[in-house]
Every structure is written in C-alpha cells, then in structure tokens.
Amino acid sequence: MNIPDNYFKTTTVFRRIGNNEAKGMLSCGFIHKKSSAESNNNVISDCYTGVLVINGSGQFIAPDGSKTELVQGCFFQRIPGRQHSTLVNDDGQWLEFFLSLDQDIYRELCLLNMFNPNEYVLHPGVTIGLLELCENYLSSLQKTPYFELPYVFSRALDFLYTIHIYDRKQQEEKHELIDEAIELLNQYALERVNIRVIINKLGLGYENFRKIFKERTGISPLQYIINYRINTAKSLLTDDKLSINEIAACLGYNDVFFFSNQFKKYTGYTPNAFRKRI
C-alpha cells in the first residue's frame, strides 16, 4: 500500500489518567525514522507499547534472541521489563504508529486474556481504515479534556482489539490460501511443472508464498512435493507390474537414477531394495 506523503512526520502525544503521576500513562503518535541510527537496541521498557509498521522495513529481536523481519503491516509489541531490539533499515522509509499503556494496565489486560505476553509480532496489515483509526485516536488523545480521558482509554482498547481482529483475519486468509495451494501441489506434484507456475496461479510472489507455506506446514513447497512423490513411490512399488523406470516417469522424474538416489536419501533404501522388503 502506498502511504500518502502527509503521513511522513513525527507527531506524538502523552497524557495521564488519574491523579498518580507515576501511573496511568497513555501515549500514542506517528514516528518517521529517517535512518538506522534511530533504531532501538537492547531496550527494556517500563510500559507496554504496540507499534504498527505503516511503511518501511526492519527487524524485531525478541527477548529470547529470535528475529522477525518487519515489513509494512506488522504490529510488534514491546513487553514491559523484557529486553528487545527494533532495527530500522537505513533507507528513510520507516513510518510507525505507536500506542503505549502503563504497565499496570497492561498486566490487568493480560489477566483478561486480551494480550499474549509471548506473542511479539502480529500481522494485521495496513488499510486506509486502519490509518484513519490511528489518526482519529491521536486527535482524540490530543484534544480530549482531562476529565474525559477514561473514554479515550476505552478507545485505546478498541484500537488494540481491532489490531488483533485484523491479525486473526489475515491468518485465516493465509490458511485458506495454503489449503488451496496444497490442493494445487497435490494436483501437479507428479507432473513436470515448475513450482513457480503453480504458485503464480495463487497470485503470490514465490518468496512470500514460501514463507507462509512453511509457517503453516513446517516445510517448504518443494519439500512438500518431494514428500508427496516419495510417498506415492512407496505405494507404486507394491505393484510388481510397474518397472522402476515406469514409476519414475509416473512421478515426473526425467532421470531414473535421480529418482533412485532421491528415494534412497529419504527412505534409506533404493527402490529395488524397498520393493524386496515389502
């Protein structure tokens, strides 16, 4: 999604709910980071902050050291008391919207199962509607009189809830896409067809598809096809009427020796040895 130029500016607001100056913090805003020097390295925050990546790219390093690539539409969470890093690519394209809550409020929301403290990066995407929601919330927090701030706090919860709903919707769409992909892979797995041709039928780029396919299945699309062929080969080898050459051809292999080597790699047996032990 192309982000209008007028969004690329830094505008933040900080308020407090209640009379305790050490608690009740509520903050949000747009931040345009112009270089990697504005990255956050090994930070430990005393509040909860959710950050929507509106534009640009970078990397989130979780407390356990695991790394997640950040792109437009990611929403990462800075959990109070846990060290993390947010690395921004040095291209001047980074734009984020953040929402921060007091850590005590965050912990209460965790008890209500609104947050998963071990889920650091969500993928809600970016839409015009979500951008407008960010703008409207910022405006509300800026202009609302002090005595009406609890109402603005409830809108903060609405915003976070919307993020989680969008993320769930994206996950469901990905699952549907992968289910469709598996059907296509099963349909074409035994043919001599380029896997990228199959993926193009789904309207996705290869690298993006490969990533979400592996997230769902635990293996790459290519590995899925190999597994499908090997399992089919095991079934075909129970039929003595088919030669090894014929089986290799049925499975889409141009070279029977390549088929035999691959079969042995994944089963520990050559096709002939596997047939004899059945």
What does this molecule look like?
The protein is of the alpha+beta class. Helix content is 45%, strand content 21%. It has helices at 103-111, 128-143, 149-188, 195-200, 206-217, 221-236, 244-250, 256-267, 271-277, and strands at residues 11-16, 25-33, 40-44, 47-55, 58-61, 67-70, 75-78, 83-88, 94-102, 121-122. Strand 1 (11-16) and strand 2 form a beta hairpin. Helix 2 (128-143) packs antiparallel against helix 3. The protein is elongated. The model has no long low-confidence stretch (mean pLDDT 89).
- Overall structural class, as computed from helix and strand content, comes to alpha+beta
Helix count from the secondary structure assignment:
9
Largest sheet: 6 strands, antiparallel
Distance between the termini: 56 Å
Identify the strand order in the major beta sheet: 1-2-9-4-7-10
Count the E strands: 10
Instruction: Indicate the mean pLDDT.
Output: 89
Shape: elongated
Q: Could you tell me the radius of gyration in angstroms?
A: 26 Å
Percent helix among the residues?
40-55%
Order of helices and strands: EEEEEEEEEHEHHHHHHHH
Q: Into which percentage range does the β-strand content fall?
A: 15-25%
Low-confidence stretches: none
Please supply descriptive tags for the structure shown above.
4-stranded antiparallel β-sheet, alpha+beta, 278 residues, 9 helices, 6-stranded antiparallel β-sheet
Topology overview:
Elements: E1 11-16, E2 25-33, E3 40-44, E4 47-55, E5 58-61, E6 67-70, E7 75-78, E8 83-88, E9 94-102, H1 103-111, E10 121-122, H2 128-143, H3 149-188, H4 195-200, H5 206-217, H6 221-236, H7 244-250, H8 256-267, H9 271-277
